[in-house]
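Lab notebook, bench 4. Continuing the backlog of folding jobs that were queued last week. Each job is logged with the same field layout so the records can be merged later without manual cleanup. Today's entry covers Xanthine phosphoribosyltransferase, a 191-residue chain. Filled in by technician R.K.

JOB TYPE: sequence-to-structure
TARGET: Xanthine phosphoribosyltransferase
LENGTH: 191
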Amino acid sequence: MKELEEYIQKGEVIAPDIVKVDHFLNHQINIKLLKKIGEAFKERFHDVSIDKIVTMETSGIAVAAIVSLYFDDVPVVYIKKEKSAITSKNMLEEKVHSFTKNKDYIACLDGRYIQKGERILLIDDFLANGAALKGMISLVEKAGGTCVGAGIVIEKAFMNGRKPFEEKGYRIEALARIESVEEGIVKFKKG
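JOB STATUS: finished
OUTPUT FIELD FOLLOWS
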């Protein structure tokens, strides 16, 4: 998605493997661009019937909400990154390692919101090493749902995070695939 790549190019390169996208996706949200992202995911997953969208808090929520508009307003369920004082007795948990924060957290999904056999589209802002995606899939499957695909806004393709999922038959669609970051320049993988 060319326009998305242009926005990424305007981001700040923090390290060879970290590009800040807070000017349009994480802190400030560009709704016009998110609409195009929603359209792009609908185009990529046009052949898939879904019951719900699942995402990880917090950056995935805005994207998932917009994507829902293109899939007949299916409900969006988000996974929390920590337990709260009002945690449901139906809370499912999975340990996940955060690449950007370099720490583990307990991802929590209220099992009441995923019914057995529901077809789930996962939506997330980034795919790096695959830890968050692995946690999301595990929680959805523990709840009885079936993951029919994962829509990723930005993939760090040089980290090979998608490989173990594709080997297991999971469908991954990324709108922008970063091939490398060299001397502050982000290069994208074609195709």
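OBSERVATION: DSSP finds six helices and ten strands in the chain.
SIGNED: R.K.
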